[in-house]
């Protein structure tokens, strides 16, 4: 049974005794005031993942990313010079939103209010009405306002501050070290799912950072996959804290039998249910019966890595009880039609699984808001929830 005998409790509490083992208060999941603190002290101070570089692959490509928690609309551009940039999607003339649609290709952007034109490098190229502005108006200072941007392994992050206290790489720290060599560049996005549940962002995020629920919630899509007599509560096989970030390895029951169609298409390419291949950057503790790694980048981004595929989640708070959730699924590029079938199987299986995940979120939020509970009771299986709340508390106190 190997590592499943490991006394998780001892190990985790020894690593981070400050997390304690007390119940977690409900207030952070329902309170408007707490949400406002998170906005100011977490989301305005963290590196935030907003896209993949292949979302704006060629010079002239652009994409708009609205970030409700900051109240920002972000314009990501690939300049004619090939550089990736981020700007506030706001016209410095009178404040109109410059680009209204989500993505496209253009050498420049014309504001729809009075016709100022900006290059994809952000410069003001044409200042309609220029002769009528006061003397001394400096058009060089009236370009689009830049936003701090950096990339890691093809993931595009922005920072709300002009001069972040840490570089992106320093912020990612050991989390990035762990999965640095995963073959992200050999994978392609095969699906995107989106939803806006009526639930606090941490209610949604928490539902994806433990496997305990899989026994109940995923008994339809993934029966007998997460638990078995030797691991009856779906304990993670290992877990790691990397500063504010964390990583858990999910155990796969040897008794699990993928659906027959999965077994067939699994011969042609990796699937969520069947793949067993070895890659760099996965299964960091070399666990037996390992399935995949849940990798949580604080505060609101996941990059879960498996043998030939990975998927990401972004949990964007809209308000204290509304979250915009997106899931992007990536898999090794398919070399033939059989590989495409394997991709389809991953897509459909994960679609069914996340639909199951969504079955609990709004009811949980509603009951938390009922006032009946002041605290929730957290096990070691849910150590990631405790770590997330611990880090948030630290950031709020800073
Ligand atoms: S607000 Fe953009 S040109 Fe006037
Ligand atoms: Fe789940």
Fold and architecture overview:
It is a single chain. The protein has 398 residues and is an alpha+beta fold. The protein folds into two domains: 2-44 and 173-397, Naphthalene 1,2-dioxygenase Alpha Subunit, Chain A, domain 1 (Alpha-Beta Complex); 48-163, 3-layer Sandwich (Rieske Iron-sulfur Protein), CATH 2.102.10. It has nine helices and 19 strands. The strands form four sheets. It has a seven-stranded antiparallel sheet. Strands 12-18-17-16-15-14-13 form a seven-stranded antiparallel sheet, sandwiched between helices. The protein has a three-stranded antiparallel sheet with strand order 7-8-9, with no helix packed on it. The radius of gyration is 23 Å and the shape is globular. The chain starts with 7 loop residues before the first helix and ends with a helix. The mean pLDDT is 94. The structure holds FE2/S2 (inorganic) cluster and fe (ii) ion. Residues 213-214, 217-218, 353, 357 line the site of fe (ii) ion.
Can you give keywords for this protein?
398 residues, Naphthalene 1,2-dioxygenase Alpha Subunit, Chain A, domain 1, 7-stranded antiparallel sheet, globular, binds FE2/S2 (inorganic) cluster, binds fe (ii) ion
Compact summary:
It contains 9 helices and 19 strands.
What is the overall shape?
A: globular
Q: Which distinct ligands sit in these coordinates? A: FE2/S2 (inorganic) cluster, fe (ii) ion
Largest sheet: 7 strands, antiparallel
Indicate how many domains the architecture comprises: 2
The helix/strand class is alpha+beta
CATH structural architecture of the largest domain: Alpha-Beta Complex
| Poorly predicted runs of 5 or more residues | none
Q: Could you tell me the mean pLDDT? A: 94
H-E order: HEHHEEEEEEEEEEHEHHEEHEEEEHEH
Alpha-carbon Rg, integer: 23 Å
Distance between the termini: 43 Å
In terms of DSSP E residues, the strand content is 25-35%
CATH superfamily annotation of the largest domain: Naphthalene 1,2-dioxygenase Alpha Subunit, Chain A, domain 1
CATH topology of the largest domain: Naphthalene 1,2-dioxygenase Alpha Subunit, Chain A, domain 1
CATH hierarchy class name of the largest domain: Alpha Beta
Counting DSSP H or I runs of 4 or more residues, the number of helices is 9
Helical proportion?
A: 25-40%
Instruction: State the total count of DSSP E strands.
Output: 19
Cross-sheet strand order for the largest sheet:
2-11-10-5-4-3-6
């Amino acid at each position: 049974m190997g590592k499943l005998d490991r006394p998780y409790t001892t190990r985790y509490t020894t690593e981070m005794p400050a997390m304690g083992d007390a119940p977690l208060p409900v207030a952070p999941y329902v309170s408007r005031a707490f949400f406002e603190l998170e906005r100011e002290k977490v989301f305005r101070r963290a590196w935030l993942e907003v896209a993949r570089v292949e979302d704006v692959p060629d010079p002239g490509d652009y994409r708009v990313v609205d970030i409700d928690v900051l109240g920002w609309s972000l314009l990501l551009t690939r300049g004619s010079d090939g550089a990736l940039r981020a700007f506030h999607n706001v016209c410095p003339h009178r404040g109109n939103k410059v680009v209204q649609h989500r993505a496209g290709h253009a050498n420049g952007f014309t504001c729809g209010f009075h016709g100022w034109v900006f290059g994809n490098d952000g410069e003001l190229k044409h200042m309609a009405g220029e002769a009528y502005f006061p003397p001394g108006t400096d058009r060089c200072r009236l370009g689009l306002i830049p936003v701090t941007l950096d990339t890691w392994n093809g993931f595009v992050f922005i920072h709300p501050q002009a001069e972040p206290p840490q570089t992106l790489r320093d912020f990612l720290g050991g989390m990035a070290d762990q999965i640095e060599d995963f073959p992200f560049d050999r994978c392609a996005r095969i699906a995107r799912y989106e939803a806006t549940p009526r639930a606090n962002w941490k209610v949604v995020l928490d539902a994806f950072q433990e496997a305990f629920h899989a026994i109940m919630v995923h008994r339809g899509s993934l029966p007998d996959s997460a638990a078995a007599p030797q691991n009856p509560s779906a304990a993670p096989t290992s877990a790691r804290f990397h500063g504010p970030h964390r990583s858990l390895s999910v155990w796969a029951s040897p008794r699990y039998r993928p659906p027959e169609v999965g077994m067939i298409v699994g011969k042609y390419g990796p699937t969520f249910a069947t793949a067993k291949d070895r890659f760099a950057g996965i299964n960091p503790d070399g666990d037996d019966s390992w399935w995949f790694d849940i990798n949580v980048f604080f505060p609101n981004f996941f990059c879960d890595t498996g043998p030939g595929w990975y998927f990401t989640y972004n949990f964007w708070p809209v308000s204290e009880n509304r979250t915009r959730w997106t899931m992007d699924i990536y898999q090794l590029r398919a070399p033939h039609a059989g590989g495409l079938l394997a991709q389809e199987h991953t897509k459909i299986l994960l679609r069914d699984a996340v639909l199951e995940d969504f079955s609990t979120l709004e009811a949980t939020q509603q009951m938390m808001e009922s006032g009946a509970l002041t605290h929730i009771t957290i096990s070691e299986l849910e150590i990631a929830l405790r770590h997330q709340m611990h880090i948030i508390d630290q950031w709020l106190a800073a």
